[in-house]
Sequence to fold (181 residues):
Amino acid sequence: MTSSLKLWIPFTLVTGWALGHGTSLVMSSPARASESSAQAFEDLSARIESLSAQLSTLQSQVRCQGGTTAAALDVASSNAEFRRILREELTTSMVNSESSKATPPAIVHEGVSPTSLAAQERGQRLIEDALRAGRWGDAQVATLRGLFAEMTATQQQKLAQKLAASINRGELVVETTDMPF
Fold:
């Protein structure tokens, strides 16, 4: 069975080539091929000329007076609107920050235990006492770590931010061999 299959493969290849070559010879005579290619070249040239004319017409329609387009005007108006909104927001935030500096906000937390509020107040007093003394030592670190155990994560973060800001401003001199928190 495999030997008969091997004989059919060359026969099929030769037959396919012969049919393809014979068809191409019959379908395209040399005289017809040169006439159709010359005609096709002229058709393409005419089409290119027509497209070039259409392109120049469209370009003249797109141009506006002064060289600006509608998109450029839209961007300019969007930028102006953005600047106006940004000014309003900055003014509002500056007014809010000035009013928050003038009156300290009352500590009102929902879901915070009285123990954590008391620990937060003791932590604030600890930092204020250290600010008056101008130093932050091992005793303050140990006390703050004990208070952190009683506070919520947001309370810990607020105290740590206050302490870090004071150290960065140079209001506190760190006199500990360990981390200041």
